[in-house]
Amino acid sequence: MPSCLLADPCHSTPCATLPYRRARRAASLPWGAMIVLTGLLVLAGLCFPVRPASAQAQLDCPLPAGVTPPAAPPVTAQQVEDGSASLTDFALAVRDIFVSEPGITTLKQLAYVGCLFRQEGGPWRSGSTYVVRLAPSDRVFIHGKDMSLSGRQLNPVIYEAILHDALGIDPADLTSPAAARTAFAAAATRLGGTFNVPDIPGASGYAIALLSGISGQPVVVLAGFDLDASHLAEEEIEHIEPPVTARGVVDRATLKAFVTAAGDYFVGLLSSGDLTAVSKARVILRDPNGPWVHGSVYIAITERVSRLITLHGGFPDRFELRRAGTIRHIVTGELVAEQVFRAAESGPEGGFVEYYFDNPDDEFDSIEVLKVGYARVFTAHIPRPDGSIRSIDYIVNSGFYPSAGDVELRGMLENPGPHSFQSGVRALWGWVCDAELVEFQIETAQGEVEFYRAMYGMERLDTQEVCGDVDNGFVLLLNWNRLGAGAHSVRAFVDRVVLDRVAVQVTTLGEGAEEEFLRGAVGECVVEGFPYQDETVTLEWQQTSQNFVITDVE
Length: 554
Prior knowledge:
With 554 residues, the chain is α+β, with helices and mostly antiparallel strands. It has 13 helices and 22 strands. 42% of the residues are buried. Residues 1-58 have low confidence and may be disordered.
């Protein structure tokens, strides 16, 4: 879609202005010892990642090298939903993936299967039928439908029903790590069962106990339980106040201090061995009313070796507990995650990085804009039940979106004006005192996003007083017909900082190549009483500008 329209506005030769892209009380259960036994699952990052898609579209699950995809299940979630198959058979199909040879024995296998489980419309997720995995304390670890609920504590009445009714485990027997291991190992030899709490709407489903083929630790898997916020325990979130909060991030120095505080907090919890606190930390670091989240500023934590996103404070359901590395820089095409990781590994104190990403705190939130990030490696030294220590590296990062309010930008986008009508071949222009690069980003009504580089340095005598010189004009010549009709959004960037943004309404003469640059058309009309009542203006179609121009005033 060329947009550099010079002598011949329909010429397709590339030039400088072409787009260049683009929770009965579980506390009565002795779970302190139990969590120490099973929490290593969390620490090792043995989880179900997903691959994000823009605007929550269908998830894609690329097959990792060396991984054999599981056989198609004999019973699908869709069949359970339409009543042609039983929930029991579906749950046992989930179990078979883990217990049938060769089972899930590597992290890559688990990651791939986990992605399949979260794939809406796939055989493992449909409507209220999907997979939930517990920690296996009473906290949600993986939620196949809404990862923002992960880390939250299950209603203790529901959890006791899962243990007693479905798994055949007497909560009173869980008195020590050894006793818990024995109880869950015995439950794993059975086929699980159903649970139902009549007094709590929707609190029913099927539960299975498993032993992880990777760590050997117990796992509780739920199927057919449409678990939402009403099924969680009420618990008070206790915050600590970091030296710099998310609200206080306004530049690189405050960003670095914010990330450093978050990394120290997280690995400190891991190294303390208090795994209950670690689970709660996932909730704390995502709390929109806490100090760690403010608008578009939030924390992300990735396990360094596996590249699994342990926590994502901004978009947990899109990104949390999946492998990083699927989103590309819309200008360079490079994987954003690789840029972040290189910055984190660039030195003992990490480093900064710039990339384009969706701003959740922006009314034009479907457009990706420049983000300044900071990333650093933090090492947790985690005590094991046998007294040994396991060291795990995590990459902690955050970022903020620079704006004209963060830097001194003296300039103005003059055309197009806000809510203006556009058609044909028109110029977009304005001025700015100092710039290395001026760009326009346009999102069309059809959702396509393009970057266009403007020419900068034109003489503007009217900027002499403000700028101290006159070579401050910028301009981009654009054929609006090529973008299609509808409401478009336009942003002007100066050195990748937003100068201004406007919404425009584009009108075209139709669709297709012939209407992108209409040839051979002739037309003329007379407008009476304009610009004054006793005057008449003649308008004539001009092919080169793809618009009507004034040819006579009487």
